[in-house]
Specification:
It comes from Lapidilactobacillus gannanensis. This is AAA family ATPase. The protein is α/β, with parallel strands linked by helices. The protein has one domain (2-195): Rossmann fold, CATH 3.40.50. It is 49% helix and 12% strand. It has helices at residues 13-23, 33-42, 56-72, 86-98, 112-121, 128-134, 157-167, 179-195; strands at 2-6, 27-29, 76-80, 103-109, 148-151. Strands 2-3-1-4-5 form a five-stranded parallel beta sheet, with helices on both faces. Helix 1 packs across helix 7 and helix 3 (56-72) packs parallel to helix 4 (86-98). It starts with a strand and ends with a helix.
Length: 196
């Protein structure tokens, strides 16, 4: 099974992915942006694009790797990545589903105010790229029909993970009872997601 976490910049896809990965047995965290970083690092300047999702190779390689992992292991694969282009969505998620791979797609949403607070918490409130994306977070991408939309505005990270695991009928380990320990873990996950 693949659990794909979609949603706007700053909504919390990565931190929820880390939480799910930590609390689900036999799961792996798969980061499609690592393929984008590889392309940007290896391609000469004249071939570089602003958005790594625009590389056909990025879409093909992620599809192939996710297909291989899904068909050759029994692990739940957790993928935090915004996909808002319908063609790109079909080239990865659509093809995986056509290959009979169980893809559970969740779009996390939150109000712009909540997203600003989350960006501030992780030190990205002054990042102009991220701030430019906040204005559109209250509107869903019209090109894609999102099957499962999860409003995270009033939910904690463990609550979001619990809801997703329950919906997927997966057994999940209990969340930490100590809210300070949970907060420290989430903070560590935020730092890790920025540098992975």
């Amino acid at each position: 099974m693949i659990i794909w976490l979609n949603g706007p910049v700053g909504v919390g896809k990565n931190i929820v992915a880390y939480e799910l990965n930590r609390r689900l047995s036999a799961s792996i965290l798969y980061r499609p942006d690592n393929i984008g970083a590889l392309l940007k690092k290896k391609l000469p300047a004249e071939l570089l694009l602003d958005n790594f999702q625009d590389y056909p190779e990025w879409r093909q390689w992620n599809y192939q790797l996710l297909r291989k992992i899904s068909l050759q292991t029994s692990q739940t694969v957790i993928v935090p990545m915004r996909l808002s282009n319908a063609t790109y969505f079909d080239e990865i998620i659509g093809k995986l589903q056509a290959a009979q791979i169980d893809v559970r797609h969740y779009t996390l949403t939150a109000t712009p105010e909540v997203i600003k607070k989350r960006l501030q918490k992780r030190g990205d409130l002054h990042n102009q790229f991220m701030l430019s994306k906040i204005s559109t977070t209250d509107q869903m991408d019209s090109e894609i029909e999102f099957p499962t939309i999860l409003d995270t505005s009033t939910l904690t990270v463990p609550e979001i993970a619990d809801k997703i695991a329950k919906d997927c009928a997966l057994r999940i380990k209990p969340a930490m009872k100590n809210k300070y320990a949970q907060g420290a873990m989430n903070f560590g996950d935020m730092i890790r997601s920025k540098w992975n």
